[in-house]
Design goal:
This protein has 112 residues and is α+β, with helices and mostly antiparallel strands. The protein is 29% helix and 10% strand. The strands form two sheets. Strands 1-4 form a two-stranded antiparallel sheet. Strands 2-3 form a two-stranded antiparallel sheet. Residues 1-14 and 107-112 have low confidence and may be disordered.
Amino acid sequence: MGITSYTIWGPKDSEDPENLKAPQLPSLWEQAKSVTKATVTHIMSGMEEVTPEERQRRMDICGGCEYLLKEENRCGKCLCFLGAKQRWASQSCPMGYWESNTEGSVGPVDGP
């Protein structure tokens, strides 16, 4: 049985997890720019959130994705925090696995 989901970890020298490299994350500045852009987009779109069913669908897709950084609950491709990204109707998957969805949203939601 081989390891199949280490795309973000760099070159795969062998099947041994000891040989895998840690993910190379962007600088804090780049991460700050990414979260700021996502937040501004969310605010400008009226802070709409997806339905609970759509959020679960997004969570299921992300849960099986090779870019999932499980311990941090972040996307390894765009580095967004998935708790917000999956909930916000204005957001989409950088790999195209799910799109933004303002038509099926529930509108602004107060509180977490």
